[in-house]
Amino acid sequence: MKILKKRGGVIKSLRKIPVSILLMTIALMLTAGLSQVMSADSDNASSSARVLLAITATSTQDLSFGYIYSGVPKSMGYNDDDSSAIFTITGEPSAGINLQFILPEYLSLSDGSASVPIIFSSTDAAVDTTPASPSTMDASDGWINQNPRDLPAGAVIGAGGTARVYLGGKVVPSVNLKAGTYSGDIVLSISYNGS
User: Fold this and answer.
1) What is the 3-state secondary structure (H, E, C) of 126-139?
2) Which of 9, 61, 77, 85 has the most CB atoms at less than 10 Å from its CB?
3) How would CATH label the architecture of 56-192?
């Protein structure tokens, strides 16, 4: 087969090829092109975000030492139902949380004229995820005997959406302590930690 015969020879040469072969060649070329087009694919993904319930902490009971006497130290455990400080936390069930206390060094009279030292030991706090009560809480309910200055990093809100933090401490009054009511602020800061 001679492809170039004269000017316009390609067209004349193609005229000599049987139509069935030309159609088959064109069909094969189209099929090859379509198979490449048909093998392409795409897919979609979605994006989502879930906003957690608002987290709150409420002081539901103050740390109370009751009556104290000059020169006589007095301790109150975190597991005292009537006197330990209790903070109730509500939020997303089972969500990880950060807990941090800001603790006073002294309890003072309202006019600031006298103060009594307050001490928090390395075992004066507990984090309860059930929440039970200070006196019935045990290790299976959360974290007991915790340092209030370094609360557990793995703390979580209970499955019911509630947790409690209990706090005890010790006051050490001087021998000639002035009579009156002494107080100081205990602040618990909370936030979700992303776990």
Assistant:
1) EEECCCCCCCCCCH
2) 85
3) Sandwich (2.60)
Q: Which helix (H) or strand (E) holds 16?
A: helix 9-16
| Spatial distance between the Cα atoms of 79 and 53, rounded to a whole number of angstroms | 29
Helix (H) or strand (E) holding 169: strand 169-171
* Residue numbers of the chain with a pLDDT score lower than 50: 1-5
3-state secondary structure of 11: helix
Closest to 181 in 3D by CA, of 89, 109, 97: 109
Backbone dihedral angles phi then psi of residue 73, each to the nearest 5 degrees: -60, 150
Q: Tell me the whole-structure pTM to 2 decimals.
A: 0.75
Domain residue extents for the chain: 9-36, 56-192
Distance CA(154)–CA(95), nearest Å, equals 10
Q: How confident is the model at residue 1, as a pLDDT?
A: 47
Structural tokens at position 74 = 């007095």
- Do 59 and 87 touch, CB atoms closer than 8 A? yes
158: how many CB neighbours lie within 10 A of its CB? 20
Residues 6+ apart with CB under 8 A from 189: 57, 98, 99, 100, 101, 102
